[in-house]
Every structure is written in structure tokens, then in C-alpha cells.
Amino acid sequence: MLISEFARATDLSVDTIRFYITKGLLKPERSVKGGSNPYQVFRKEDVNAARMIRLQQTLGYSLGEILALNEEYRAGEHSPERTIEVLQSQIARLEERRAALDTALSFLRGKVNWIKAGKPEGAPRLEDYQC
């Protein structure tokens, strides 16, 4: 499939797809058509790869981390032990992020309640909350 059809199949913009290609995250085949600018042809496997990239981003991985992990996987260097290590590391990072978000939410809720109460003395102070 060509890039426009691939964009529809993955719900990604053409610009995002091109960016992923530039970064090496997607590697479509080149067609003989198109002359000096050969068409990029995507396979079903590329659709799955694009969905995996989006999932990994949702899980908090950077594009650099995604590229490194995907290259490990393609090279057959991703043992179950390595997978567990990577996943546990990401779980720890997400738990830290959740704690920071919980703190930020507490501050914002305190600020809203303070405003609703007519802004009495003792406004919530950011330094009272550890982010």
C-alpha cells in the first residue's frame, strides 16, 4: 500500500509517517515506480509496527528508546529476561511519573478549592507540594 492508504490504515498523518521513516522507525520497501523518487510501499507488517510505535509512545517510551528496542527485537537480541528488564524499568518510570502527577493534581485541586472558598488566607503554595 502507498503512504496515503497506510496513513488511513494506521490513523497517522503522512507527516508523522515520513518522520518515522526519517528516524528509522518504519522501513517501507521502495517501488520501481516513481522514477528518481520511488514510491514507498508499506506492508501489513508495517501497519503492525506503526501501531506498536504508538503503543510504546503511550507507554512513555521516547522515539530513541523505541528505535533501540525495535532494533534489538529485529536482531533477535530480545530474550524474555531482557523483555522483563525493559518492562520493569518502564513500570518504575511510569510509577514515578504517576506520583508526580498525583502531587500536581493535589495542588491544582487545593487551588480550585481555595478559589471556591473565596480566596481566604493561606493560599496553596507550590512549595508545599513535592513534584
From TrEMBL:
PROSITE patterns: HTH_MERR_2. The keyword Electron transport does not apply. CDD domains: HTH_MerR-like. InterPro entries: DNA-bd_dom_put_sf, MerR-type_HTH_dom, MerR_fam. Residues 84-111 form a coiled coil. Gene3D superfamilies: 1.10.1660.10. Keywords: Coiled coil, DNA-binding, Repressor, Transcription, Transcription regulation. Residues 1-72 form the HTH merR-type domain. It comes from the Bacteria. The keyword Coiled coil applies. One of its GO terms (molecular function) is DNA-binding transcription factor activity. It holds the Pfam family MerR_1. This is MerR family transcriptional regulator. It comes from Agrobacterium rubi.
